[in-house]
Write a structure and sequence with these properties.
Arc Repressor Mutant, subunit A, mainly alpha, 6 helices, DNA binding (chains A, B), WH_DNA-bd_sf (chains A, B), DNA-binding transcription factor activity (chains A, B), DNA-binding (chains A, B), DNA-binding, homodimer, WH-like_DNA-bd_sf (chains A, B)
DNA sequence: GTGAATAGTTTCATTATTGAACTATATTAA
DNA sequence: TTAATATAGTTCAATAATGAAACTATTCAC
């Protein structure tokens, strides 16, 4: 491919990617997790899946510092969404888990996530989605090497 | 497609998309725009392309409030990257443009953006990239309708 | 010419983030 | 066994991004 064409493709890629993120974000804020920020929703989702989950896991997963995680978790502990529990074996470690309220919030949010994204994805053919997701995953694996 | 499969695909899509954004962001911070935040780089890029560009344009483009734009532009004006110039016809309007320093910063950043993304995209076939970008754009157009 | 609309700013509160210093605990090696 | 080091997490201070509401200045419409 010629450099010029490639650069055009990069321009298209970056602006499309930005717009997708922006719009998905708006959609999520409006229809999926009104009561949470996008970061909080993502973190809760991760904590729920990982189980047991520590601050360091989150910091690593989202590539942010541990102090940022502490701040975010504090807010959610205050709002009764997350519990902290110290490991009795190794008392440096603090395990995070969803409170019943947190579980409930996430059950509803996840349900709406599936509905909203499902509706959007229904406009694509199965093959198209799979191909797209495959390319995304390939992109992830290349980015991991960098 | 069955609901279960679709939901799995949604899980894969969301986590892949999150990881791509996260890693691209890290890559950009490290190799493309060390001296700027991602938001600032995106805004400068937009101002440069749009020309003439107003605060309202930016607010609309990035789907954020005008007060958020004012705050961001202030920081970049202070750093000598952006100039404000009032329209003499309609004195409510303020045009934004890159200062020579801003232009220089963006010339370098854009160059590095092409290099870095070009290297990553070189691992894909031309057809694969085009298909992926097409799906992205289709996604954008569906999201616009929502 | 007055009232409504538009462009942008100010102010205030919240959230997210980094980096450095710090506490507490566990591990290792002399 | 203890002294040095590593690990897990928190605290603190600063910067950035953001929304909402109140505001200023200007233009437009009737």
């Amino acid at each position: 491919m010629q450099a010029k064409e490639l650069n055009e493709l990069i321009d298209i890629y970056t602006s499309a990617m930005n717009e997708v993120n922006r719009r998905v974000n708006i959609l999520m804020n409006e229809q999926v997790h009104q009561e949470l920020t996008s970061d909080q929703f993502a973190t809760l989702r991760y904590v729920q899946k990982k189980q047991p989950c520590t601050s360091s896991d989150i910091a690593h997963e989202f590539a942010i510092g541990k102090s940022a995680v502490t701040a975010q978790i504090n807010r959610m502990v205050e709002r009764g969404l997350i519990d902290r529990q110290r490991d009795e074996e190794d008392r440096r470690i603090v395990y995070l888990s969803l409170t019943p309220t947190g579980e409930e919030t996430m059950a509803e949010g996840t349900q709406r996530l599936y509905e909203v994204l499902g509706e959007i994805l229904s406009e694509f053919s199965e093959q198209e989605i799979e191909r797209f997701v495959q390319s995304l995953e390939k992109l992830v694996s290349i980015l991991r090497k960098h």
